[in-house]
Amino acid sequence: MSDFITANQKAWDKQAESQQIWSTPVDTKTISEAKQGNWNIHLTPTPLPKEWLGDIKGKRILCLASAGGQQAPILAAAGAIVTVFDLSTKQLEQDRLVAVRDNLELEIVQGDMRSLHAFTNETFDLIFHPISNLYIPDVNPVWQECHRVLKTNGKLLASFFNPIVFVDDREKKPEEQDIIKPRFKMPFSELDALSSEQIAQKHQKQEAFVFGHSLTDLIGGQINVGFNIAGFLEDWQPTPRFVIDNYLPTFLATLAIKIG
Questions:
Q1: CA angle, residues 52, 256, 86, in degrees to nearest 5
Q2: pTM of this prediction?
Q3: Residue 104: exposure state from Cβ atoms within 10 A (0-12, 13-18, ≥19)
Q4: Using CA atoms in the order 132, 136, 139, 144, what is the torsion angle rounded to 10 degrees?
Q5: According to the model, what pLDDT value does residue 52 have?
Q6: Cα dist. 68→6, 62, 191 in Å?
Q7: 23: which DSSP letter?
Q8: Is residue 1 scored above 70 in pLDDT?
Q9: Alpha-helical runs (H) found in the chain
């Protein structure tokens, strides 16, 4: 199992080096505007409603598995005290680049999202956790750790894919590409679904291994550790990759409050 973590780290390092969509740092103009109060960040493709964040000035925010030089620098420029935590060295370098370039205070920590031992209990006012838990086989340790490091009444803003995107057969014939052909059940793991040859190919190509989770774990898991779900939204995939993306919004996001 440890091999998938190493593989996923290398995959995101590769994305950062090639400046993929979630690995391209924001420019100085964006940071300057954020300092003046004109800013947006993304938990899903559509800009996040500002009321989910509230007043962030002086608040301690953890950007969890959220490196890439985008959300964390904007939040820091807007007045928050920000820590960005991520597995990928190269992704974190993007945040460091923006912090140095635009004179921002930004704490940068490398690690696995399932273990936040670098932080003491009740450290943060808010955790910003955009889509990333598809890269781990079990999301429940993430919710447990988020609950531990948040202050009482602190917020967890998290996004993830509707598990329906993982159900479809990925090896359909050309004439079946426009057909939804259910094959996999939740929870889904590429480590179980792929052959040893396919797994070796993913390692060779430095592609990330992905996992699909049930709504029981994605949403119920937050409730089980002591969060109150205070907000929920769905969002459409702007560049559909799967047939199902054309028929329902496959991005999900929750606003959860630590109630005790």
A1: 85
A2: 0.96
A3: buried
A4: -90
A5: 97
A6: 18, 14, 26
A7: G
A8: no
A9: 2-17, 28-35, 50-53, 71-77, 89-101, 140-149, 190-193, 196-205, 215, 221-224
129: β partners: 158
Q: How many whole angstroms separate alpha carbon 250 and alpha carbon 240?
A: 10
For 137-156, give the DSSP string.
S-SHHHHHHHHHHEEEEEEE
Residue 208 to residue 202: CA distance in whole angstroms? 7
Measured distance CA(215)–CA(77) in Å, rounded: 34
CA dihedral 100, 102, 105, 106 (to 10 degrees): -60
Distance CA(191)–CA(209), nearest Å, equals 7
pLDDT at 7 over 90: yes
Express each pLDDT in 47-79 by its tens digit. Answer: 999 999 999 999 999 999 999 999 999 999 999
Q: What is the DSSP letter of 38?
A: -
Q: Give pLDDT tens digits for 148-183.
A: 999 999 999 999 999 999 999 988 888 888 999 999
Contact call for residues 245 and 165 (beta carbons, < 8 A): yes
Phi, psi of 167 (to 5 degrees): -80, -35
Let me know: does 86 contact 92? Beta carbons within 8 Å: yes
Amino acid in the structure at residue 200? A
Q: Which helix (H) or strand (E) holds 87?
A: none
Q: Is 62 in a helix, a strand, or coil? A: strand
86-110 pLDDT per residue, tens? 999 999 999 999 999 999 999 999 9
